[in-house]
Amino acid sequence: MTLIKLFFIFFYIGAFAVGGGLVASTFMQQILVLKYGLITQEKFFAMLAISEGTPGPIGINMATYIGNELFGPWGGIVCTLGEVLPSLIVLVIICRFFFNFKDTPLVQSMFSTLRPATSGMIMVAMAQVWQISVLTINNFKESGYQFVQLFNWPSLAFFAVCIVFLFKTKIHPIFFVIAGGIFGVLFL
Hints:
Elements (H helix, E strand, L loop, with lengths): L2 H14 L4 H15 L5 H13 L4 H44 L3 H29 L3 H6 L10 H16 L4 H15 L1
Helix pairs in contact: 1-2, 1-4, 2-4, 2-5, 3-4, 3-8, 7-8
């Protein structure tokens, strides 16, 4: 894998990941982990967790992190440019022409189609993170499919407590992200 090829991979991800960082992370996983095997699944989800916990867009954080991991600081810069450049090009074009076409049926139907597709991609990313962090599929198979081995019980309990507090209190979500990072470092 060369730095130029990695730039074009992130350019592709940036061009087609409509819907934000979690959608981009799904593409990144498919391409970088499953197709090319550049990083492991575990390392990818560790990078995703760190990218979600740091300020800034998740997709850009992931591109910077992965580029830096594979090629050092220049890799981080090149991958970030590859991720951002398609959006910049599209934004310049949209800003130039959008107000002329925003009320046309074609534009309205495109937006109504993109919303559920983006939601589905985000749900896929959420399910994958859930599987890595809460489910213990390998232990479940090794234990002869005993239900008690299906879950990582400390993670599941922490998740349940966070969900209850998130919906029952007015605590800002950033504190749950910080608590999740601390929990992961101390207990997993």
